Each structure stands twice: as C-alpha cells, then as structure tokens.
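Please decode residue identities from the backbone states below.
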C-alpha cells in the first residue's frame, strides 16, 4: 500500500501546483500513462498497473480542480487587484500571526469593477491595524459583508484569493446550531482558564483546540526553539496522547473489547466537534486514530495499511492537502509512531508502567520522524527537542482531557472552572520545559536545510532511533539519554574561526534581513530582525550578544520584523527606531509590556551605543505606505525604509532596508541637504539585491564590498543578476548569505576581512 499512497500523494502535489500545461500535453501524458498501465497488466504486473492508473487519475482529478478554482471569475478579480464588497462565511476563528490577523472563509459573492460574481470558493483574510481587532471579534460560522482588496495567492495555494480587509460590515446571518455549540465550547474553555496565570491561560486553549490568540511572541519563540510548537496546533500526536489517557482510564475501570473502541470513537468525535470541522482537524483525527492503533488498540502491518488508506482518502478529498506542511508533518509523525512507537513502548515497559511507556514513546517516535522536515523548513536542529517532547508527553494527555471536560461543561461555568484550573497546572510543566530548554546555551543548532543537510539529519535520526531502542531497555539507559542531550545543549557549537574579530555580521535568516553591529562588551545594535525568531536568535547567540540597546526596524514587512517581538521580549532594548508613520499594534503592545521606547527615526540624527554610531540619512513616507504595510506588499512600504549609515569602530556600513529607486533617490537628496556622508566600506544591497536599483546610490556608497541577504532558492530571484552586475561595475566584491551563510566583516587597517559561517574552519 505504501507505493500506492506515495504515488497518490505525488500526483496530487503535482496536480495542485498551479502549473498550466497546454491541453495537448495533458492529453498526451494521460494517454501515455494509460498505455503504461495496459502494458503492465499484460505483463501480469497488476500492482504496477494499479499504481500507474491511480497516479494518472489523481493527477487529472487534482489538476482539473486546481484549474476550475484558479480560472474562476473571483480569481480574475484577484489577479487584477480589484477592490470591492465581498460576502463571506467565516469558517473558523481568526488568529493573530506576525503582526497581522489571518482568517479562513468561504466567499459567497464579490462585487467589484461594476460586476457581481457569485461563487463559493475558499479565500484567506488578512487584516492589520484597527480592523484586525474587529476580525478577531467575528464569530466563526457567521456570514459578513466586508470591503477588501482581492489579491492573487500563490499558484499552488488552495485559496482562490487573498482578501486584505479595509472595512467590516455588520453580520448578515449568524452561525448555525453546530457552529454556535462549537463557539460556546471554545469560549467556555477560555472562560474556564480565565483566572489561571497568563501563560497557562494562553497554552491550554492553544493545546486543546488550536486557539493561539493569547500566545505572545516570546512564548512562541520558546516553543519553536524547543520543538514544542506542534503542541500549539491541532495535531494527531496530541489526539493520540489524549486518547491514551482516556483508554487507560477505561481499561482501569475493567472495560475491554468494544467498550474501549467506543470510548476511542467518542473521544475522536468530541475532538472534531470542539476543535472545529476544518481539514486540519479531520487530518489530525485520521492520523491520531492510526497512531493510536499502532500503540494500543491494534497492531502489526494493519496499522501501516491504515496509514496508507488515510493518506489516500485525505488526498482524494482535498488534493491541496498534499502540499500542506502540516499534512507532511502529521503523516511523518504518524509513520514514526506506527513504526517506532510499539518498539519504544516495549523497551520502556521493561522498567516503567505501560501508560508511562506510551506517554514517552509517542512524542519520541514523532520527533525523530519529523526532524528532517523541520530542519528543511527552519534550517535548525533542536538539540533539546527530543528531550523536551519526551518529558512534555506525559502532561499533554491530561491537559487535553481536562481542557475538553472544561469545554463540554460550558453551560455550567462554575463547574467548568475546576477542570480548567487543573488543566492549567497540568500544562505548567510544559511551560517550564519550554522556558528552561530555550534558555540553554545551545537549545538549537543552525543546520542548512539543503538536500545534503536533510539527508544527513535523516540518517542521524535513524541512527539515534537504533541507539535509543537499545538504551531505553534499561532504566539507566534512560538517565544516560537525558544526560547526553542536556550536555549537548550546554555546549555551544560555533564553527571554527567563526566569527573571529568582527565589526558587522549579516545573519543568514533566509529570505529576510538581520544585520548586527558590534558595540563591544557583549552589546550590539541590530538592524532588522529577520522573518522568524530562531535563525536571528541563533545568529546573535553565535556572536555571544547579550544586550541590544538599540534595535532599528527599517520598515514593517514580515521578512524584516517577523523576529522583532521575540527580540524585544528577550533583549529588552532601550530604544526601537522605526520608520515614520503610526506604529503597528503588535509593536506598541510588546513595547508596553517590556518598557521599551519606540519612536520614528529623524533624518540627520546621530545615535551612539558603545563602539557603534548610527546616522539616519532619510525617512520617507510615500503615499500608500500605510496601506502597503497592512497588505504586506508594494513599493510604497519598501521606499518608506529607514536609510542610514552604521559604523562599528572604523567600519562603515550603508543600510537601506528595501528601498527601491525612488526611496534611494530620496536618500541621496536628503543626505546631501543634511550633510550625511553615505560613503561606506560595505553596502548591504537594498531589497535583497532586487533588480530595481538606483546606480547613483551605489556610486555614492563607494563601497568595496556588497552583501546580499537572501534565502536559498527563493522564488524572487534575489539577488538579481542586474544588481550584482551593477555592484561589480562599481568595483565591489559580492558575498551572499544564501550561498555562504552568515557573513562577518571587520576592517583591519585598510583591509576588509571577511568570514562566512559556511566556510569557517
């Protein structure tokens, strides 16, 4: 069954990719695959024929669905960037993410460009500023009319359009009876933990129903570093751990056989109802049942077949599931539990009760199986991840069971408060683990998510599984396992020769920016915070940065400020310098919590922090910058970037955020008027080295070195050939974070020394 499931998955992945081949090519491919199937049948290879036929049918089916969605009238409006009125049904509660609020809805009709289009298609909703708080207050299942700009999503996205909200109207119709019941239970859970400590109040709804609305950036960062992020989402592993607790209680009452199966089914039904009837919930339920069968209810090859059948059904029902990272993580975690779970349970059961063995085995197997995917996505290996997941596992089931009990008791809030309070304290050890684990010197290692890097991590995970199967047969083997990972987390693996003597470091944060200027004494000035906290924090830790007195955010695009909340929460800078205009709510909230001053940069100002001097050359707010920031697009927000020269000792670096030709031109004029010298030793290529550059800006820098900060294999083509040719034409050497990793620069005498993390040692 495994080849059949993998072929179906691959076909759905291709079919939903958004690729638009010519009709003749589709027909030729379809006929060719059918001929191969016929040949296989005549050769009496029925199984091969079935795989080929299934691949062909799935490819055709998913391709047709993709074409129908993205050739719809709504998709045409989105491609034109139309602004209009939309009626939609909110499918689930909106959630905050990276300075915006995201929701998922079904569009009913759209009215724009003097025409009305009726089509029930999935859309994604984005909101920022005041309208984001309104979106958070909308009721799942309700129908609303909104004013929004329609934008085209990525070609392989399941959504037909992305709606950037401008205004939310009144509710047209309320949610149905099922949605009202689900909303009441979810609100009942929040009310039940309302009097618990803040972090418990945030984690319990997140762990039980995937409600992350109360989770702050610092907490999210801690869970990401310790590989516990999956606990903040609806997942099959969480369901498995919950059902393990339920079934242990049922068996403790002396019930067996069908009573156990009915209890398991009841748990799954409650899980689906309370978490919401969404694809991710159905996926988690299917994977959770398969995983449970592997360690408790069933056994043997049947569970592997069950996993394959689950993959087939889920992909056929929703071809875009094949492109979902969540689905890949769920399937791999489930495969790990199916293959390794029973073996770990058998090993640990030799010295521990079976219920404890199951609670330890499930997260251990899941973590080992998913680590290659996590590394490919994050360029990180969580050293403490296996350990924190194993230690957190026994607390997940009780927290989830008590959380569900609190939700189900919502009509009796005085009674629901009891299990809600207990759920919070069952979750407290998980919070301690995340806090303690993330504070270790080397909680995570930077590891390139390239094909070679992922292959090595896969081999390493397999080797570790073999070693653990032997070690965990004995109690002292478990103690040695814990001691080993604690020791690894206490040793900081810095590449030989990295960073050496440095004055500026351009961190490899993927497709984003984070520049560090050495202020000496463990302090640094940081310009932009990268798209995600882990990579930026890891870079700062490798430089042994202990304090950031000054953080400069050139503009508000996510690839420059995605890690800002975590950095502010962790390092508590005295001042955050930003572009002109109103500050986004997330920045005001974290600044208020940490007592950090936030203010707009002033052209011509000079700030000094230790060995670092910052001179602001220009701050421009072109028309449309506020809208562009809210919608996460547009040259206006790029050109609003703060432009300045930062110096560490004698080294000067010219930084311009994502400024494009217009913004660079404004910087040239402003610098000339204010007497700010733009000449520098190093130029960080504006906008990651995009093709849109002003040659006079490059000439004014007089730089000997150009640094391109971009993500490996990014879809934007950064850095562009034209930008690199322009830099070379001005006599600049070029270094790139996408191919060379983080880059450290120092000025020794009159000579620039360059070290790269990838080439260190």
């Amino acid at each position: 069954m495994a080849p059949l499931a993998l072929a179906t998955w691959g076909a759905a992945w291709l079919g939903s990719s958004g690729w638009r081949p010519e009709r003749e090519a589709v027909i030729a491919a379809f006929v060719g695959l059918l001929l191969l199937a016929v040949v296989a049948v005549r050769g009496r290879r029925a199984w091969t024929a079935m795989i080929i036929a299934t691949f062909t049918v799935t490819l055709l089916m998913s391709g047709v669905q993709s074409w129908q969605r993205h050739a719809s009238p709504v998709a045409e409006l989105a491609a034109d960037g139309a602004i209009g009125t939309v009626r939609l049904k909110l499918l689930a509660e909106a959630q905050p993410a990276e300075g915006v609020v995201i929701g998922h809805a079904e569009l009913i009709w759209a009215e724009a460009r003097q025409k009305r289009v009726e089509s029930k298609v999935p859309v994604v909703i984005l909101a920022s500023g005041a309208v984001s708080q309104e979106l958070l207050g909308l009721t799942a299942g309700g129908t609303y009319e909104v004013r929004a700009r329609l934008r085209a999503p990525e070609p392989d996205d399941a959504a037909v359009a992305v709606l950037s909200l401008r205004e939310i109207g009144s509710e047209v119709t309320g949610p149905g009876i099922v949605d009202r019941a689900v909303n009441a239970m979810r609100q009942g859970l929040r009310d039940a933990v309302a009097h618990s400590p803040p972090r418990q109040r945030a984690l319990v709804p997140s762990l039980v129903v995937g409600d992350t609305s109360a989770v702050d950036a610092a907490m999210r960062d801690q869970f990401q570093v310790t590989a516990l992020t999956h606990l903040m989402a609806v997942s099959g592993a969480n369901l498995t751990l919950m059902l393990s607790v339920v079934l242990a209680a049922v068996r403790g009452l002396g019930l067996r056989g069908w009573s156990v199966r009915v209890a398991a089914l009841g748990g799954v039904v409650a899980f689906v109802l309370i978490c919401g009837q969404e694809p991710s919930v159905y996926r988690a339920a299917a994977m959770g049942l398969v995983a449970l069968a592997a360690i408790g209810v069933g056994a043997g090859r049947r569970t592997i077949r069950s996993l394959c059948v689950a993959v087939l059904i889920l992909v056929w029902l929703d071809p875009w599931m094949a492109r979902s990272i969540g689905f890949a993580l769920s399937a791999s975690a489930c495969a790990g539990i199916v293959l390794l779970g029973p073996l770990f349970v058998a090993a640990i059961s030799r010295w521990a009760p079976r219920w404890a063995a199951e609670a330890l085995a499930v997260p251990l197997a899941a973590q080992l199986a998913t680590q290659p995917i996590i590394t490919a996505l994050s360029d990180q290996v969580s050293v403490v991840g296996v350990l924190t997941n194993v230690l957190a596992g026994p607390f997940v089931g009780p927290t989830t069971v008590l959380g569900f009990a609190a939700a189900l008791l919502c009509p009796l809030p005085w009674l629901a408060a009891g299990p809600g309070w207990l759920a919070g304290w069952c979750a407290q050890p998980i919070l301690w683990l995340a806090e303690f684990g993330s504070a270790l010197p080397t909680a995570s290692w930077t590891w390139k998510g390239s094909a070679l890097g992922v292959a090595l991590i896969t081999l390493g995970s397999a080797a570790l599984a073999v070693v653990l199967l032997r070690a965990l047969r004995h109690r002292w083997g478990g103690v040695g396992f814990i001691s080993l990972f604690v020791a690894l987390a206490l040793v900081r693996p810095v590449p030989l020769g990295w960073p050496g003597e440095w004055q500026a470091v351009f961190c490899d944060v993927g497709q984003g920016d984070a520049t560090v200027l050495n202020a000496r004494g463990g302090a640094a000035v940081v310009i932009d915070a990268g798209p995600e906290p882990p990579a930026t924090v890891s870079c700062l830790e490798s430089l042994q940065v202990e304090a950031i007195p000054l953080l400069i955010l050139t503009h508000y695009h996510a690839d420059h400020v995605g890690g800002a909340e975590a950095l502010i929460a962790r390092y508590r800078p005295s001042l955050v310098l930003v572009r002109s205009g109103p500050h986004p709510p997330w920045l005001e909230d974290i600044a208020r919590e940490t007592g950090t001053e936030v203010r707009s940069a002033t052209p011509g100002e000079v700030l000094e922090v230790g060995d670092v001097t910052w001179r602001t050359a220009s701050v421009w707010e072109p028309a449309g910058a506020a809208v562009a920031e809210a919608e996460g697009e547009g040259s206006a927000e790029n050109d609003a970037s703060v432009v300045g020269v930062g110096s560490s000792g004698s080294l000067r670096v010219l930084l311009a955020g994502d400024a494009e030709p217009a913004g660079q031109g404004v910087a040239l004029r402003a610098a000339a008027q204010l007497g700010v010298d733009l000449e520098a030793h190093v130029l960080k290529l504006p906008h990651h080295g995009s093709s849109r550059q002003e040659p006079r800006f490059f000439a004014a820098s007089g730089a000997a070195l150009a640094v391109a900060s971009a993500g490996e294999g990014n879809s934007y083509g950064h850095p562009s050939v034209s930008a690199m040719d322009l830099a070379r034409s001005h006599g600049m050497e070029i270094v790139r974070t996408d191919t060379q990793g983080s880059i450290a620069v120092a000025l020794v005498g009159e000579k620039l020394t360059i070290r790269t993390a990838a080439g260190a040692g």
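Observation: The chain has a mean pLDDT of 84.
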